[in-house]
Amino acid sequence: MPELPEVEATRRHLEPILVGAQIAGVDVRRLRMVRRQENPADFAARLCGRRIGALDRHGKYLLGRLEGDFTWVTHLGMSGRIRVAEAGEIEDPHTNVVIDLTAGPQIRFVDPRTFGFMAAYTPDEYGRSSLAALGRDAFCDLPPSADLAQLLHGRSAPIKALLLDQRLLAGLGNIYADEVLYRAGISPHRPGGSLTLSEVTALWGSIGPVLKAGLVAGGTSLGDLAYLLPDGRAGDHMARLGVYGRTAEACRSCGTPITAAVLRGRTTHWCPECQE
Question: What is the pTM of this model?
Fold first, then answer.
């Protein structure tokens, strides 16, 4: 699933193309892609003819700020990506939404599994959506370590599950949660409330560098290449991962084989020697 580094890499690629551009047309090929819109017909109607004032991101969500106080929301889901292409260029399979600009390329939403979505929200609709419940952004608005400790205080759930809870901290997913815990030397099975202040500080200090490394590499494209940058290039962070996807391979620090198991429904990777 595209996580914060992948979505931020996508945002940075799209920003010079979209900001200031006017939307000329919207073609929704699968209505499921606008299922979060209260009236599906509103999506195209609210985008067409409007200029994009800014392209922001919160956690895993892309947020296009449109004229008229609308927010164009994109979530890539499990397998979604944004493709920038010229009109008439052969489309990738599973191209489900096509956005035409008055001057510029097409913006195509490709999503084989259709867990992603797009919507155009009024401020009131935005306030009623799941976005309003998101925690602070893990990259741009990471809370101080003392605040993070307070968020974890008394929590009995495994720290890995808590890092995936977007209501506590927005943006971390399965890949980067494993990498953050590995860098911090914390077992994913530890109850969140059991972490000492020094361990929370180590956790806090690991989040930024792990996310930045993923962003600098253009994100993590797995073997299925479901995630690609908007220009079609793969993110090459996979080769730099410490534990994720490296089951039975030697830990880069101590040589112990990396372990994998399902934790709260998510495959989790860790070094049993380095992570306590």
Answer: 0.96
